[in-house]
Amino acid sequence: VIGGAGILEQCTPLFNRIHLTYMQGSYTVDTKVQIRSLLTGFKPIEARVPLNSNCVFVTYENLSKRLTTNS
After folding, report:
1. What pLDDT, in 10s, does the model give residues 15-55?
2. What is the distance between the alpha carbons of residues 52 and 32, in angstroms, rounded to a whole number?
3. Is 70 in a helix, a strand, or coil?
4. H/E segment holding residue 6
5. How far apart are CA 8 and CA 30, in angstroms?
6. Separation between Cα atoms, residue 38 and residue 56, nearest integer Å
7. DSSP E strands, the chain
8. CB of 3 within 8 A of CB of 11?
9. End-to-end CA distance of the chain, in Å?
10. β-bridge partners, 61
11. Which residues make Cβ contacts (< 8 Å) with residue 1, sequence separation at least 6?
12. DSSP conformational letter for 5
């Protein structure tokens, strides 16, 4: 998201889903996002670990905006 952590945190209530990539390792960064706070009200619905990778892809769903599908 262009605009930094503040914009991301302000927009979180609008999101149906959040797709996060968790990477192993330590990194020098200039902006930090409070992930626990960001994910309040969301639950993980999918996680994928690619072969030979140092990352995990996780999809979170907003519990107050659950997407429904017609059968």
Report:
1. 999 999 999 999 888 878 888 989 999 999 999 999 998 99
2. 27
3. coil
4. helix 5-11
5. 15
6. 18
7. 17-23, 42-48, 55-62
8. no
9. 34
10. 17, 43
11. 7, 8, 11
12. H
Per the CB < 8 A criterion, the answer to whether 59 and 44 are in contact is yes
If you search the block for the tokens 């149906």, which residue do you land on? Answer: 16
Tokens read off for 37: 């706070």
Largest CA distance in the chain: 47
The amino acid sitting at 70 is N
Distance from CA of residue 51 to its chain's centroid? Answer: 21
Q: Which two tokens stand for residue 30?
A: 């200039």
Tokens found for residue 14: 């609008």
pTM over 0.90: no
